[in-house]
């Protein structure tokens, strides 16, 4: 029986682990993918207070090391379901079952696909959701990025250092990322920004050779030659496994109060997986702190009641 089980090893889950371990509780962190979470896809983090510039991988490594040194246990497993028991929770995974007195869900979100025909088939053969992971495969080639927020602009800047040309397609009339990033993209000779267009078709049979784009407010269509297409159009939560014990909103995000409490006592949600407006590392860490302190208060309460 673990005191606090944490689902997901992103900034929210690992911050929660640090607080719980410092209160001398036993902590088990279950992770189905990369330790460190989504930040491992981030080329550079330049908005985390106290750190001028750090790569996502370095940030994740430091966070994971901090939790290991504090005594946290990690296991690679995908949580497939949660059950409330008399003493706490039974956590089902693809590997084995775990028991915990309290659970913090910090399952984050994953990349949203474009939803175009053959997108899945071309994934790995031209279509990518991560410039940090796949950018080097397109060295000195033409690529395109879809999206207009901070992630899309960061990916554009990274790709502009590697690729011959980067064309950025955004469906809105304006790019929505930070002005600083946008200006950095505008200053690059090999970056072309095309707002007001959507990607209609992925071209090429076995591997991507280009994309067909269409104007949002006219019939204009263009073909952009590119060997790689990087999709950065936002996120979708991955909370299906928890829906029985925690309410999700229409978008699939977990509904909590300001203290990261779900409707089930002892079950908390922190970070990008929960319903909120701003999804950043700082807000994920803030949630992790709140969820852990609330989980500790819950454990104290159950001890007092016993
Ligand atoms: C390319 C990119 C660049 C970014 N750059 C920045 C930046 O510069 N600054 C910034 O502040 N933010 C940035 N972000 C956003 C930031 O990474 C997220 O806001 C932050 O990582 C959210 O943390 P989290 O812990 O809530 O979730 P995540 O980091 O998403 O971690 C959740 C973890 O839970 C795991 N998981 C999910 N479901 C299960 C399950 N059922 N069982 C087990 N494990 C599970 C996932 O595998 C994942 O590792 C960027 C994001 C991307 C994609």
How would you characterize the overall build of this protein?
The chain is α/β, with parallel strands linked by helices. It has 2 domains: 2-110 and 235-305, 3-Layer(bba) Sandwich (FAD/NAD(P)-binding domain); 119-231, FAD/NAD(P)-binding domain, CATH 3.50.50.60. Helix content is 26%, strand content 27%. It is built from 7 helices and 17 strands. The chain has helices at residues 11-22, 56-70, 119-122, 131-134, 150-162, 179-186, 281-305; strands spanning 2-7, 27-31, 73-76, 79-84, 89-93, 97-105, 109-111, 127-128, 142-146, 165-170, 191-195, 197-203, 210-215, 221-225, 228-231, 235-237, 267-269. The strands form 4 sheets. Strands 1, 2, 3, 4, 5, 6 and 17 form a 7-stranded mixed β-sheet that branches. The longest helix has 25 residues, at 281-305. The two termini are 16 Å apart. 42% of the residues are buried. The structure holds flavin-adenine dinucleotide.
């Amino acid at each position: 029986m673990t005191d606090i089980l944490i689902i997901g090893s992103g900034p929210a889950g690992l911050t929660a682990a640090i607080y719980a371990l410092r209160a001398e509780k036993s902590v088990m962190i279950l992770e189905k993918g990369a330790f460190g979470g989504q930040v491992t896809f981030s080329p550079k983090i330049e908005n985390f207070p106290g750190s001028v510039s750090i790569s996502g991988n370095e940030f994740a490594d430091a966070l994971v090391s901090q939790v290991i040194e504090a005594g946290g246990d990690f296991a690679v497993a995908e949580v497939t379901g949660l059950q409330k028991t008399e003493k706490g929770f039974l956590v089902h995974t693809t590997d084995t079952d775990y028991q915990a007195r309290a659970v913090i869900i910090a399952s984050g979100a994953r990349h949203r696909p474009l939803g175009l025909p053959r997108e899945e088939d071309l994934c790995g053969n031209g279509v990518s959701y991560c410039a940090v992971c796949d950018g080097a495969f397109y060295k000195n080639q033409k690529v395109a990025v879809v999206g207009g927020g901070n992630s899309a602009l960061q990916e554009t800047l990274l790709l502009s250092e590697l690729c011959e040309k980067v064309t950025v397609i955004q469906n809105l009339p304006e790019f929505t990322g930070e002005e600083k990033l946008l200006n950095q993209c505008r200053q690059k000779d090999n970056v072309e920004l095309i707002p007001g267009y959507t990607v209609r078709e992925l071209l090429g049979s076995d591997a991507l050779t280009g994309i067909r784009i269409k104007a949002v407010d006219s019939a204009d269509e263009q073909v952009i030659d590119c060997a790689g297409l990087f999709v950065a159009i936002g996120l979708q939560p991955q909370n299906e496994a928890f829906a029985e014990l925690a309410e999700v909103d229409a978008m699939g995000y977990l509904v909590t109060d300001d203290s990261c409490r779900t409707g089930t006592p002892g079950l908390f949600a922190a970070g990008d997986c929960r319903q909120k407006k701003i999804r950043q590392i700082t807000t994920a860490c803030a949630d992790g702190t709140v969820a852990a302190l609330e989980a500790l208060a819950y454990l104290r309460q159950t001890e007092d009641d016993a």
